[in-house]
Write a structure and sequence with these properties.
The protein is of the alpha/beta class and about 350 residues long. It has two domains: about 160 residues, Rossmann fold (3-Layer(aba) Sandwich); about 160 residues, Response regulator (Rossmann fold, 3-Layer(aba) Sandwich), CATH 3.40.50. The protein is about 45% helix and about 20% strand. The strands form three sheets. A six-stranded parallel beta sheet has the order 4-3-5-6-7-13, with helices on both faces. A six-stranded mixed beta sheet has the order 9-8-10-11-12-14, sandwiched between helices. A hairpin with a 2-residue loop joins strand 1 and strand 2. Helix 2 packs parallel to helix 11. It is elongated, with a radius of gyration of 23 Å. The chain starts with 17 loop residues before the first helix and ends with a helix.
Length: about 350
């Protein structure tokens, strides 16, 4: 379980421990009671910290996280809120613990990328009892939330899958073996991977999926891809649920010491629009495409949506489109990289 005091760490690195948060929230609320049996102090009332927003994005080691954070910080400054960050590090028990802590502190609202949708139901109910707004990030699969910031995952899946199919038709004669690095517990994962498979099969009917394993970030996808390539050394296409996983998949492939011809027959693609992956695409690596999102804009939108919910401005719903970044349009990658550099 994560240390509950971590949930009080601000985006600028200042630490507000649990005791300090409670003390500041209870200023002036302590009541001194005197009786014949001695002196006793009533429990201080806990005041809501409504000008705090928690961004519960647990994949903080992912390459895109600093860009999300930059957008979120900018929006918090503009809206007059304090930003709290996740320290769950991809662990469900830690995520549940920090959400409970934030709800107990009665912050204004939280927007969460859930590690397990089924674990969120009781937390949503608890948040609403405490008058804490609870929004869904990346999915709209959680019932009873106060809004969401999602992505046009099926549209992004079609962009990548169709491009991959055209590449297979041009370079492999319409036939390829596909490996999938997935995250089936989340709707975003299912939509991206399943949508891409449907699109590539429509464009290149001769392809076949021969391997499927769970894996999101590079550290997970490196050993998984190593195992896949040992079992299926003739894999041609690898779809990664997230761009970060592309880096691990590429590393595993390069460890096989592929020939120039073998490299020319490999296609790795993902989604998100992480800068390291876009640079790989520009350089002509075996990572050839990504469905890119405006990561900075999404970070800002996550805060704005949560602030709108806190301020009673309805049930915010934001749906971000994808842009195809590929070796066929390197200018699009350079434009997005330049925008992110200014964040």
């Amino acid at each position: 379980m994560t240390d509950p005091s971590h949930a009080g760490e601000t985006a600028d690195g200042r630490t507000l421990d649990r005791r300090a948060l409670l003390a500041s929230g209870a200023a002036g609320a302590g009541v001194l009671a005197l009786s014949g049996a001695g002196t006793a102090y009533a429990r201080p009332a806990r005041r809501a910290n409504t000008k705090q927003i928690a961004f519960a994005q647990p994949d903080t080691s992912a390459g895109l996280y600093p860009l999300l954070l930059a957008g979120a910080k900018s929006a918090c400054k503009r809206r007059g809120y304090q930003l709290l960050q996740s320290h769950a590090n991809g662990k469900l028990d830690a995520q549940v613990n920090e959400l409970n802590t934030w709800i107990g502190q009665k912050i204004g609202g939280v927007i969460v990328l859930p590690l397990d949708n089924n674990a969120m139901g009781p937390l949503i109910k608890k948040a609403h009892k405490a008058n804490v707004k609870f929004l869904d990030y990346s999915d709209k699969a959680l019932p009873g939330t106060d809004g969401w910031v999602i992505f046009d995952n099926l549209g992004g899946a079609k962009l990548v899958g169709d491009y991959a199919g055209k590449w297979v038709n041009k370079n492999l004669g319409g036939k390829a073996k596909i490996a999938l690095l997935t995250h089936e517990v989340q709707q975003t994962g299912r939509d991206r991977i399943h949508g891409a498979v449907a699109a590539i099969k429509k464009t290149a009917p001769g392809v076949q999926v021969v391997a499927r394993h769970e894996g999101v970030l590079a550290a997970d996808c490196l050993p998984v891809t190593q195992s896949i390539l040992q079992a299926h050394p003739d894999i041609n296409v690898i779809f990664c649920i997230a761009d970060d996983g592309c880096l691990g998949a590429e590393q595993a492939f390069l460890q096989t010491k592929p020939s120039k011809d073998r490299k020319a027959q490999m296609f790795i693609a993902g989604w998100d629009g992480a800068v390291p992956v876009m640079k790989k695409i520009i350089s002509g690596s075996v990572i050839r495409a990504t469905g890119a999102l405006d990561i900075v804009g999404i970070g800002a939108a996550s805060v704005d949506a949560t602030a709108d919910a806190i301020e009673g401005k309805g049930n915010p719903r934001v749906n971000y489109p994808y842009t195809l970044i590929s070796q066929s349009n390197p200018a699009a990658a350079r434009k997005l990289i330049a925008k992110f550099a200014k964040a």
